[in-house]
């Protein structure tokens, strides 16, 4: 029996993991963006949970979104209600075992027949077919097959128990509603899956001892037990995130109390004829679905009151601390975690760009307040880089698809590039500080040259951030031509400034700072080029040159083998280099 339960739970876990990987964060993004009203939230909660088959996972996402400041507490009410409806899909699938037709097609839908077929197909897809999405499909089909196999094995192992008086007495004890709710909640809390505990109850129905009055408190208890996952995820979270987890529990407890009172008082008065009816798998699945739909219909009009109540249960103002986009709860859904990491890397890019522009302003007009702001932003940038790096390392410990593993690698490289841009911007500010503190001034020619080069680098940074944010190949292809112009300017301006030093038109001390500026500007441009190349490579065809040999690709660009690149290079050369091509002194 324990082996059957293990197979069943492993099948459930395998199927859920495959569904989450296949969604690639899209379902979570829908939750994040499309919760403008509570009715839409119910539909979305049911849809997402129906696809990933875990109401706990959906609720944990909500806790994470609220903790990250992405969603408000009120937006989660409908999603949580819908999640309870969506989680009933597995029970409906398992009810296929009640099919008793001799029709060949219908017979194939029976778990004892369908399970081995699905498991075989799934293992073939998972083991022998390449491609991330196909592998996920194989994992889903394999999990569903194991689910059916475990279910049927569990039924066959518990069937002899119906002859034991002790087994029947145990189930009779569950007719006590308080004990039934408690047992249902404890079992579900232990395995952290109401779908799995529901499947076990459906398997027990084959013994013929599961009646309506026994099943109803167990089902209600299972709904309460599944809240444990969200409650655990709320530990250490913001106040509103804790309220979100509590809201899930509150909704299920209120629904359980209301319907238990309604049913037991109603039976005492009207003596329901179905009270002692023996239930099969389909009846249990329909009872589960009906209970969750009725709870939602009952409590949906009181969604605002539910929020008010949970705010009284967990009193105080919402935390004002800065929201953490990289919430640890997202780690259980790698695709969503990667999406949030991408957002954080984009934020790093904006920090780096802000510092670059502050450093350039310091060169034109030194201001201690701007320097202080630059140093504060650099601290924030370094902190974010360290947080992101650790987060991605932890994410790598999870089971990732090949596509997600590649994204982790790209994110690590990109965050390093943005961090280096920030560091080189600090170097620019240090050079500006030295020039200011020592009372030195660049010649008009040197100022004009620096203005041209800093403008070119500024556009390079701008394009690098935009192409990375939008994952745009078109924007990314525009970065390398500017970078090539920056390289040209660095070489020419360095030679030109050395001549000024030889002719005594500039001091050695000031000349050193000028050359230091050129070096740092060119290195910033190099890192922008790296970022753009990640996007070009990612969006290119699998057999393209940049994917097969990136060095050959770069060689082709810089040796006149790409007409589009040459045209853009000439455009930016005329824009930035041509105005200073002739020495101004």
UniProtKB/TrEMBL annotation:
Top-level taxon of the source organism: Bacteria
Parts of the chain that traverse the membrane: 42-66, 78-97, 109-129, 174-191, 249-272
Residue span(s) of domain PhoU: 346-431, 451-533
GO biological process: sodium-dependent phosphate transport
Subcellular localization(s) per the UniProt record: Cell membrane
GO molecular-function terms, A-Z: sodium:phosphate symporter activity
Membrane-protein topology: Multi-pass membrane protein
Keywords: Cell membrane, Membrane, Transmembrane, Transmembrane helix
GO annotation, cellular component aspect: plasma membrane
Stated name of the protein: Na/Pi cotransporter family protein
């Amino acid at each position: 029996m324990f082996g059957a339960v293990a197979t069943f739970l492993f099948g459930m876990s395998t199927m859920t993991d495959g569904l989450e990987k296949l969604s690639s964060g899209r379902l979570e993004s829908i939750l994040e963006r499309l919760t403008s009203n509570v009715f839409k939230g119910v539909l979305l909660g049911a849809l997402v949970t129906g696809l990933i088959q875990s109401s706990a996972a959906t609720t944990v996402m909500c806790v994470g979104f609220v903790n990250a400041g992405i969603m408000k507490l009120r937006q989660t009410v409908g999603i949580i209600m819908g999640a309870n409806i969506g989680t009933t899909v597995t029970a409906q699938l398992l009810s296929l075992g009640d099919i008793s037709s001799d029709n060949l097609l219908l017979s194939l839908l029976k778990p004892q027949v369908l399970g081995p077929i699905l498991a075989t197909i799934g293992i073939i897809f998972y083991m022998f077919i390449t491609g991330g999405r196909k592998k996920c499909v194989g994992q889903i089909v394999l999990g569903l097959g194991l689910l059916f196999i475990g279910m049927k094995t569990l039924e066959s192992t518990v069937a002899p128990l119906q002859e034991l008086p002790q087994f029947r007495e145990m189930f009779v004890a569950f007719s006590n509603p308080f004990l039934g709710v408690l047992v249902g909640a404890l079992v579900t809390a232990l395995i952290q899956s109401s779908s799995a505990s529901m499947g076990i109850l459906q398997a027990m129905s084959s013994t013929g001892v599961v009646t309506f009055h026994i099943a109803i408190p167990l089902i209600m208890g299972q709904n309460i037990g599944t809240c444990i996952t969200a409650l655990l995820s709320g530990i250490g979270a913001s106040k509103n995130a804790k309220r979100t987890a509590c809201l899930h529990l509150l909704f299920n407890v209120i629904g359980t109390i209301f319907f238990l009172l309604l049913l037991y008082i109603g039976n005492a008065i009207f003596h329901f004829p179905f009270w002692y009816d023996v239930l099969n798998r389909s009846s249990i699945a329909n009872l589960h679905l009906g209970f969750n739909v009725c709870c939602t219909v009952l409590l949906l009009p009181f969604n605002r009151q539910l929020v008010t109540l949970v705010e009284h249960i967990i009193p105080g103002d919402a935390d004002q601390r800065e929201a953490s986009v990289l919430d640890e709860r997202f780690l259980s859904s790698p695709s969503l975690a990667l999406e949030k990491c991408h957002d954080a890397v984009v934020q790093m890019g904006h920090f780096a760009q802000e510092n670059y522009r502050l450093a350039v302003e310091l060169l034109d007009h030194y201001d201690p307040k701007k320097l202080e702001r630059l140093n504060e932003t650099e601290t924030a940038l370094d902190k974010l880089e360290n947080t992101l790096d650790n987060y991605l390392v932890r994410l790598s410990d999870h089971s990732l698809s090949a596509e997600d593993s590649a994204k982790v690698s790209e994110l690590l490289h990109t965050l390093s590039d943005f961090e280096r841009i920030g560091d080189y911007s600090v170097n620019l500010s240090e050079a500006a500080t030295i020039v200011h503190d020592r009372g030195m001034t660049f010649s008009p020619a040197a100022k004009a040259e620096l203005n041209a080069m800093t403008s070119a680098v500024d556009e390079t940074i701008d394009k690098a951030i935009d192409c990375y944010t939008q994952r745009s190949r078109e924007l990314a292809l525009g970065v390398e031509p500017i970078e090539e112009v920056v390289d040209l300017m660095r070489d020419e301006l360095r030679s030109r400034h050395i001549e000024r030093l030889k002719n005594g038109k500039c001091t050695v001390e000031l000349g050193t700072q000028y050359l230091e500026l050129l070096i740092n500007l060119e290195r910033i441009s190099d890192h922008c080029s790296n970022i753009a190349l990640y996007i070009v490579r990612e969006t290119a065809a699998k057999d393209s040159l940049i994917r097969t040999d990136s060095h050959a690709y770069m060689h082709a660009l810089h040796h006149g083998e790409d007409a589009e690149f040459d045209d853009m290079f000439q455009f930016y050369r005329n824009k930035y280099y041509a105005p200073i091509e002739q020495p101004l002194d």
